[in-house]
Design a protein that fits this description.
The protein is of the alpha/beta class. It has 5 helices and 7 strands. The chain has a 7-stranded mixed sheet with strand order 1-2-4-3-5-6-7, sandwiched between helices. The mean pLDDT is about 95.
Amino acid sequence: MHIPSSDTAYIEVLSFEDALRSTNDDYDKARWLYVPDFYSEYRYILGTRGRRPLICIGINPSTAAPDDLDNTLKSVERIALYNGYDSFIMFNVYAQRATNPDDMEASLNEILHSENMKAFEYILKLSDASPSVWAAWGNIIEKRDYLPVCVRSMIDIGKKYAAKWYSAGKISKKGHPHHPLYLKKTTPLDEFDIEGYIGMLR
């Protein structure tokens, strides 16, 4: 389990650019994309390398790392491969690690958010075609008031790259996209009206 040691405002947060330049050789960098490439209180990116990644968006990262995926990320990888993608990238609306979303910090760290959005733009550029973005956060988005604000930032960045948004599985009664954990590996992706969705949250 990961319980935050403190709010991220009280720790040193590496910029995405600095985190991307780190040189940890404890895993296969030809296969994995992991930023920062060491375990810390936050994580920008975790995924496999390819020319056609499926970008899955959760709320916040937990304990997963290269060659040590949790059950959620194993499900994400299976669904990505089933739907014809050659890789997956796990990204999160907010970068603070917390096994239990109730432990996320109460207030938005603007620096962490800004660097996380730079990471989002970076991964959008990795696709040979229009990037595919899978909204997969479930009802957890209701945990903090700042989370929809972060999603709106992602929508704006995605427009620059003609990102296509998808969901998988049944939409909740409140309109939230399904979390990946209990989905079958043969679950198809469905087009998701992210603009209509985020308008509903206002």
